[in-house]
Amino acid sequence: MGIKVRIPTPLQKLTKDKEVVECEANDVKGLVEDLEKRYPGIKTRLCDDGGKLRKFINIYVNDEDIRFLKMDQTPLKDGDEVSIIPAIAGG
Amino acid sequence: MLREDQIERYSRQIILPNVGGKGQEKLLNAKVLVIGAGGLGSPASLYLAAAGIGKLGIVDSDAVELNNLQRQILHSTKEVGRPKVESARDRLSAINTDIEVIPIKKRLTSENILDVIKDYDIILDGSDNFPTRYLVNDACVLSNKTLSHGGIFRFDGQAITIIPGKSPCYRCLFPEPPPPGAVPGCQEAGILGAVAGVIGVIQANEVLKLILGIGEPLAGRLLIFNALDSSFRIVKVPKNKDCPICGESPTIKKLIDYEEFCQLRKKGGRGR
């Protein structure tokens, strides 16, 4: 059944307007690679040149921020739900 | 002591078990600053004024434009061209003659923000750009002011309440703003007016709860709204010990003016 990933509005252009996509991975690092394979271009939106998650985007595994888990080593299993949440500034 | 007309005006909230005459007096004695008289600031300030916030400051440097009216419900067609804070003062004072509305026609910068916020207890951020949002967060942390943060983008909304010293700040959540060009520009974004309404009203509700001392604020919790599937979700926001402004060894000691990256604003776009 894989891992459900919620894609934020600003990145949905890359996922052909899909808000939720399915991925396969053992950890968050693998998830980003799998997303990039399926939706080329998404990785550079999420990570900087050094491969680190950008500071205005958070990744949550089942509503927990990976920065307070094991960062990109945070393990994933089938059925987990991952959300990508960017800072938004409109008003 | 509440006057007769005040008891009548606020009767529907005074009868609430957690409010009462004492709660109403707290609201009438409260000083709230709304930053931005736009999509979020409009619904937020309308409810705050109606509820009887005694001193309500509104900061904005812009004039009303026709393309604002689809969501900025403080303003009306005949106000196009007028400073937003003047239009806001007239509308809010018309709703409630019992409160003091203070228009502040300023663009917030690292130079003036501490002086602008110092007279208020609670700050509601309804600005529309990253530089102002980080400036407001940092200024509130440095001056120990409670902040209700709200942001919208297309069909998405976010809200969080920041109680400096107690709950995580906006930089605990997102340590730095995106660099210029990393997010779609204002002109491509777009917003449905009702989405601004949902988040702005949540912010007003947070402020009212904080003043009344009732319920649980959105502190340490980010509320995420999606208008397309009508969903609300909450994710946990822990305090970040490495936070550059409120962490154990802060690296930001003075306010920063980040580079503006919305070109539209340069020709008089939406305001902060």
Describe the 3D structure.
Chain A is α+β, with helices and mostly antiparallel strands and 91 residues long. Helices cover 18% and strands 23% of the residues of chain A. Chain A contains 2 helices and 5 strands. Chain A has a 5-stranded mixed beta sheet, with helices on one face. In chain A, a hairpin with a 2-residue loop joins strand 3 (57-61) and strand 4 (64-65). The model of chain A has no long low-confidence stretch (mean pLDDT 95). With 272 residues, chain B is α/β, with parallel strands linked by helices. Chain B has one domain (13-266): Rossmann fold, CATH 3.40.50. An 8-stranded mixed beta sheet of chain B has the order 3-2-1-4-5-6-7-8, with helices on both faces. In chain B, a hairpin with a 4-residue loop joins strand 7 (221-226) and strand 8 (231-236). In chain B, helix 4 runs parallel beside helix 5 (84-95) and helix 4 (41-51) packs parallel to helix 10 (193-212). The longest helix of chain B has 20 residues, at 193-212. The radius of gyration of chain B is 18 Å and the shape is globular. The N and C termini of chain B lie far apart (37 Å). Chain A binds chain B through residues 8-10, 19, 54-58, 60, 63-65, 67-68, 83, 85-91, and chain B through 36, 38-41, 125-130, 133, 150-158, 173-178, 182-184, 186, 189, 191, 196, 222, 224, 228-229, 233-238, 240, 270.
Question: What's the quick description here?
Answer:
Chain A has 91 residues and is of the alpha+beta class. Chain A has 2 helices and 5 strands, in the order ββααβββ.
Write the layout of secondary structure elements.
The complex is a heterodimer of chains A (91) and B (272).
Chain A: E1 3-6, E2 20-23, H1 28-38, H2 42-46, E3 57-61, E4 64-65, E5 81-86
Parallel strand pairs in A: 1-5
Antiparallel strand pairs in A: 1-2, 3-4, 3-5
Chain B: H1 4-9, H2 11-14, H3 20-29, E1 31-35, H4 41-51, E2 55-59, H5 84-95, E3 100-104, H6 113-117, E4 122-125, H7 130-142, E5 146-153, E6 156-162, H8 170-173, H9 186-189, H10 193-212, E7 221-226, E8 231-236, H11 263-266
Parallel strand pairs in B: 1-2, 1-4, 2-3, 4-5
Antiparallel strand pairs in B: 5-6, 6-7, 7-8
Helix pairs in contact in B: 4-5, 4-10
